[in-house]
Amino acid sequence: xxxxxxxxxxxxxxxxEGTDVxxxxxxxxxxxxxxxxxxDKKEILSAGGGADSDAAGKRKKNTGKLTTSSISARLKxxxxxxxxxxALTKLVIVDQRNTASRKEITSEMRSATExxxxxxxxxxxxxxxxxxxxxxxxxxxxxxxxxxxxxxxxMENIFG
Length: 160
Description:
With 160 residues, the chain is of the alpha+beta class.
């Protein structure tokens, strides 16, 4: 029988799809290894390993005045999912949030008046689903979303 599992611990994210034998026998070893990696990383950082605030798990504070509109312009937003990504990027990178609710995402989308159209809000469920399925964002809870670790790194390179 094929099983699927996704584990996220701090900056580490692991997805597995396959037989349930691995989950029953080896999953605990994997989780222990991830925890050890996180602990080792914290030790290195606290010992002054020369890492900056990004490596410590904190995002750099953006000194610019980025808005959802300015992010949308840089990303060349032309679809609902594009605008969702721009709004979530603003909430995560600029506002330094880990997750954002549907309501907060919609509010940010509406703030980008040059890019927003009411159809995007009406199809928010579809846009969020598309982004989750493509691995661009993660569904943290029933109504909370976050950038995937890969997309977060990409957006931090562009806007951070």
